[in-house]
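Repro case for the chain-ordering regression, as requested:
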Amino acid sequence: MVYSVIGTGAIGGYYGGRLANAGNEVHFLLHRDYEHVVRNGLQVDSVSGSFHLDDVLAHKSPDSMPKSDVVLVCLKTVNNALLGELLPPLLKEDTLVLLIQNGIGVEADVQAMFPGVSLAAGLAFICCAKNEPGHVNHQCFGSINIGNYSCPDQSRVDALLADFVAAGIDAHLVSYDEARWRKSVWNMPFNGMTVVMQAQTDALLANPSMRALIKEQMLEVIHAARHLGVTGIDDGFADSMIEMTLAMTPYSPSMKLDYEFHRPMEIDYLYSRPISIAREAGFEMPKLSMLEAQLRFLEEKNL
Amino acid sequence: MVYSVIGTGAIGGYYGGRLANAGNEVHFLLHRDYEHVVRNGLQVDSVSGSFHLDDVLAHKSPDSMPKSDVVLVCLKTVNNALLGELLPPLLKEDTLVLLIQNGIGVEADVQAMFPGVSLAAGLAFICCAKNEPGHVNHQCFGSINIGNYSCPDQSRVDALLADFVAAGIDAHLVSYDEARWRKSVWNMPFNGMTVVMQAQTDALLANPSMRALIKEQMLEVIHAARHLGVTGIDDGFADSMIEMTLAMTPYSPSMKLDYEFHRPMEIDYLYSRPISIAREAGFEMPKLSMLEAQLRFLEEKNL
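-- result from build under test --
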């Protein structure tokens, strides 16, 4: 299968890099890092085994990229409008587009832009960052849950999963809605609260009042999901997410990095969409709604 | 009537100062400002008319103060444990203690310390600050709502009210519970949110998401009060408090000043008590509970 990666940041560099390192044909769309990667290749420092790609199939524009069997979209969702230009050159009849992005409602919007295209969601449980050009630093975890959104042929999703697993990635098939809501249990509290409180995950959890609040916010997500018919996430998942986070090195989620570098935050898909989807179904998420408002306020001052 | 003021900060200096300026006998308990006030008197710069008191009845200790008909307690509530030492020298059989303090539950705790003493609540709607020794700056508003908590003789509260009015203070008698909850409608959103968002009142209200959140928090207070049987505060009061705040000069509430100067914040009486009183009656205040947790987190880092 021919793979393409749109958005070669930490996520695109890591998962695309692993696929290429395992021998797959992977084309990378690069922007600021293009010259560096062409000259120096792509370096992935990883707790699961570091590697270096010497000859990267690097592209400055999607026009030089091949029609692809699988496209990994690893942009920040705030840039998804760019897909209108970036995606069409890569599409053929049976292309599967895997959106490795955070939040709720992403596929619905991309599907509206590309009505006939097969979409799947990729939810990455991973701590990684790209702090220099062409250099990905993978600190912990690394699994990815893949859920089929609109691909009529499940065997194509299965084939994608098999390539991920063969490349040494801890990948799992899950139901689409559960995949997105399950990831939101961690994302919604920690992304926003690390921004508003200007603290990393470990500092938040060290304070008993804050730890209780984080758990309440997690339960808001779990109960919203249940209200919407996503029954696979039990209340105990909140405690296990907190335990997992306690075991992590102190971490700044992507939204905190976006805020610190004065980049747009993914408030729409991480907060506004799930909150409004739940509200339309009659379920309020008061604490995460408050967090959304606090983030809107900070964003206005920050950009 | 003989008046005493415990806690000659902005509030004690302003209301006590007005009473003294109108010719009442008012004794002031001073701490850091004592020497300055003995030498220079007390200066009140006020939008309602500035004045200077040359000969202030200043005291360093309650032991030199007279038994008083009325004691104005103008301490921050975080210092209320001091009342165990400060109040007894001033008490006679019919002393009325007016607690001009923020929050919910203050009188219940002071009553437990002094079971037989007559208490009333004073809720000041005022923007004022003491930025230098012996110098109060009153920027806007100035009214005070007085509610009888445990004075068996209402005529003593009426007499106090008459003295306040005669001194040029816009004072009103209201029912005790309504007085405290009505003030909390402004206090609970703005005190905490100006701290957490590191912004003054005007900046908060200039952002549409934040303004909506502030109103939702105000409605939490109004609905909690209604659930507790305080029926005099209708939903429209939230809008009128927002309109009033928009008309104010940009303002840092006392909790924001406390935070900036690394002093303890009045989280207990402003947040924890009303939230737990409402919860015990079956009413949740989710957004203000979240704010309480955020303040606990910041306080731990700040002190």
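Ordering looks correct now. DSSP finds twelve helices and ten strands in chain B.
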